[in-house]
Design goal:
There is one protein chain. It is built from 3 helices and 3 strands, in the order βααββα. The chain is α+β, with helices and mostly antiparallel strands. It has a 3-stranded antiparallel beta sheet, with helices on one face. The longest helix has 21 residues. The chain is globular, with a radius of gyration of 12 Å. It starts with a strand and ends in a 7-residue tail after the last helix.
């Protein structure tokens, strides 16, 4: 299965982190998925259940970012 998620109203450079450090940490938590970030879109490939789990976690992370304006490695 394939899913494309748009990061609306978020600066991708801030969200992905310096040198994509945030993105790499996120992707490492989901080794069964292939996750590709291009600009303000994230393409996720893998099993449906795992993509759903990823989406829920990503939604939480986006909500945190929208509230606090940053993502730290602890989050």
């Amino acid at each position: 299965m394939e899913k494309v998620i748009a990061l609306e109203g978020i600066d991708p450079r801030e969200f992905y982190g310096v040198g994509n450090s945030n993105f790499e940490r996120i992707a490492a938590l989901f080794p069964k998925l292939r996750i590709i970030a291009r600009g303000s879109e994230i393409k996720v490939l893998g099993e449906s259940a795992e993509i759903t789990r990823f989406e829920k976690r990503l939604d939480s992370l986006i909500a945190y970012y929208n509230k606090y304006g940053h993502i730290s490695k602890e989050v």
